[in-house]
Request: fold
Amino acid sequence: MESQLSIDEVAKRTGLTAYTLRYYERIGLIAPVGRAAGGQRRYAASDMTWIEFLLRLRTTHMPIGKMQAFAKLRGAGDSTVPDRRQMLEEHLTDVLAEIEAMRQSAEALQAKIEHYRSLEQSLASDSISDEGHANEHREPLRTRTRQTA
Amino acid sequence: MESQLSIDEVAKRTGLTAYTLRYYERIGLIAPVGRAAGGQRRYAASDMTWIEFLLRLRTTHMPIGKMQAFAKLRGAGDSTVPDRRQMLEEHLTDVLAEIEAMRQSAEALQAKIEHYRSLEQSLASDSISDEGHANEHREPLRTRTRQTA
DNA sequence: CTAGAAGTTGGAGTGCGCTCTAAGTCAACA
DNA sequence: TGTTGACTTAGAGCGCACTCCAACTTCTAG
Reply:
């Protein structure tokens, strides 16, 4: 049974702090874990599995309120499996949409970086032919265009 | 010039609220926009482009503090282009890592959903052959650990 | 000339997710 | 037996990103 980890060991392994682990337990995200003499927490392997799953939910931005709802269902036994599956399916839909949104924005950022790169080229050649005031581009949006009233 | 939008029109188009638009201006994320008679804000096309870019940064979870730093560089002219590019490159690295983390977690969630699906199958057949108590299955259920007195 | 709608400002309040403090308990060691 | 130090608890505090309020000004319609 090396599956009896102290709170600090769990913190180290999960990247959570001891504060956060206690907080999660307090708010019902983690069911009361076993205790050693003196009331110190001892985490079993099954606790670790659950915490890792919680971290999956957190990574995918599930709010704590929903995690609490999920944890409550889980505590209520196998009869809630369909509900839990539905929750995860709905969440997964959101997650996939968010990943796609981030992917698109990342692409836009990449394009902006490229734009800056070429802008740096022109600015560099500007300063060769015209050293002095390098400030009449107001905004590096799409290539050029700068007029507005 | 239909590029003179009121704050409500901008709110409608960007999905931000008027409150948030003013807040962004107050904290320097958006440079002071043009004003109509009576001091009402009028957003030009270039403002819209910038706001859309800000939304890209927000979508990719750049904290407001960094956006402020970026906006400040932008306001300081073309000489800051290399700094801005570097900021975006570093941010993009983070973003790609986050996307990958989310992708992996999404996969784990998908697996969990499949697991639940098959679990629902076995629970259903249980209740055919053994109608009554459908609650002695293995899996992410805590075994023992209750309290310590 | 009002009335009402829509804006303006600075500042206060909110919700989330931790993060830390204060006071106390306990086990182990000198 | 006394001290150390890691742990415990309830509750307060914090940083972020908004979100709303109160009081005021201005524009438009009737």
Q: What stands out?
A: Residues 6-8, 18, 22, 26, 38-41 of chain A lie near DNA strand D (CB under 10 Å from a C1'). The helical segments of chain A are 7-14, 18-26, 45-59, 64-75, 81-129.
